[in-house]
Amino acid sequence: MPDDDGGPGADAGPGAGRTLVGVLGGVGPAATVLFLERVIRWTDAARDQDHVDLVVLQHATVPDRTAFVLGRSADDPGPVLAADARRLAAAGAGFLVLPCNTAHAFAGAVAAATPVPLLSAVEVAVDAAVGVAAGVAADVAVHAPRPEAVGLLATEGTIASGLYADAFAARGVKTLVPDVAGQAAVTSLVYDGVKAEAGGDLRALDGVIADLRSRGAGAIVLGCTELSVAARATPPGLLPDVVLVDALDELARATVLRAGRRLRGPETTRSPALAGERAAVS
């Protein structure tokens, strides 16, 4: 008798021949949930068994990453993330993902804790922005020219860490960041809006984005997964012709491919934000 949720033709055993993805989650919780939703969205699946196998550690009490990077807290997230990586490795994860940009400042601690590789959200977002992530964000390469400069919307911790600036510099692209007032608006949307579950969307940053564009940004990178949550709540058509590259979305696509699954076809998966057709990510 077939399994009640598997149906005929299911794999011979649970996860047979599949790569298990370990998700270092909870940083923040809403962003992790959105990441999982995006993985489902981008997977070409006709049944349950076609989807990606994941083990998710929703560890919301990991110390604040930005506070530590900026020296405002002595509570180091590195050892906590390292311990979580070992737990996921012990669970059989073939590779790890971390749906938090700032937490990538502690990727070294994760790498030292386990040989299980970490798929970098920063690297896949940067590749998408410069149009070289073949098969991951081909719509960017088709619809947007390689930019000479990109605007980065991220936490103060991510900016201070140099994660994106270094990765873009290695590809010959300049990184532009908001001015003091603009960064304050970004920080408020992240912490007072999304993390506090008080809502908010990218309309709060329209002036910041306009300023980055006026300074020469050919694309805007959403380099904070809380901003990905805000983008989801943003009404369509807010910023026509702005190319937004969402790091969480790119990580979800790359995860599907790395796990050995297929992406949905371009007619169903093209992200309007990435294609520059509108700002909101549906």
3D architecture notes:
This protein is α/β, with parallel strands linked by helices and 282 residues long. The chain has 14 helices and 8 strands. The strands form 2 sheets. A 4-stranded parallel sheet has the order 2-1-3-4, sandwiched between helices. α1 crosses α11, α3 crosses α4 and α5 crosses α12. The longest helix is centred in the middle third of the chain and has 15 residues.
Provide the residue-averaged pLDDT: 85
Estimated structural class: alpha/beta
What's the end-to-end separation, in Å?
Answer: 40 Å
Strand order of the largest sheet: 2-1-3-4
- Broad shape: globular
Percentage of residues in DSSP E strands: 5-15%
Q: What is the count of helical runs? A: 14
Please give a quick description of this structure.
This protein is an alpha/beta fold and about 280 residues long. The protein has 14 helices and 8 strands.
Secondary-structure topology with pairs:
Elements (H helix, E strand, L loop, with lengths): L20 E5 L3 H14 L11 E5 L6 H5 L7 H14 L4 E3 L9 H7 L4 E2 L1 H10 L7 H6 L5 E5 L2 H6 L1 H7 L4 E3 L3 H15 L11 H9 L4 E4 L2 H8 L11 E3 H12 L7 H4 L2 H4 L7
Parallel strand pairs: 1-2, 1-3, 3-4, 5-6, 5-7, 7-8
